[in-house]
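Case study 2.
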Amino acid sequence: MKYLITIISGIILVYSISSCRSTKKLQTAVNRKDTQLVITTTPLKNDSLTGANDILKSLQKNKINFTTFSAKIKVEYEDYKGKQPDVIAFIRLYKDSVMWVSINATFLSFEAFRILITKDSIIILNKLNKQVEHHSFNYIEDIANIPLNFSTLQDLIIGNPIYIGDSIVSYRQTENHILIGTVGQFFKNLLTISADNNLLERSKLDDIDVVQNRTADLSYGSYEKNNTFYFATYREITVAEKTKVDISLNYKQYEFNKDLSFPFSIPKNYKTK
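Prediction:
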């Protein structure tokens, strides 16, 4: 039960360690020497600042705009206990309104969980134990231990950049990549962008609060052209605070802007947890 709830959180949040607070802190899988964002007090030169702003504007132009989205995702998950059984997640999303998630464990022949998320609430049907849970949207923030709203959640699922700060603090261009460091209210974000098409390849988040020391490494790959935009069909996520979680999302099927239904009913024999 706890494992599947963590998987759900991983799919919709990338960061769930609420059941592992007393676990001995593990070494993060991210090599901080190579990826940690260093902030200096020396202002960026005007040409560097202009270049960084232009790239971020281009990144925004590549942002996926949609009305509806649906996907079948294979989810692989590993934590301090080792590799866990894979699950299949079916997601349906109506922009800025509702998200529907169905969780199917690959070792089972039926749906294990169904979730309905709106801007204000989350309902979880536990079909294994015939239980239903009602929560406010803040429940997701409590599990993830990060500031989150519905808009950020849907960007995470779609693959749009998240937590891009208002202040640009570093800029470097190589033959194949552009690296831009930003600082926002909650996170430092080191973005790695492809130099030839301005597609996001990696987002390295480090907590502004050194006491919490949260870190997340999001990688985007296997892009496919979909009408006027590119969609990353493979994502790798490593998150760490007092423990480490590795998640991979492989989008097996996906569609944009198709008519969708969001079937969700609570059987009378389900108990409220």
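Residues 127 and 204 are 36 Å apart (CA to CA).
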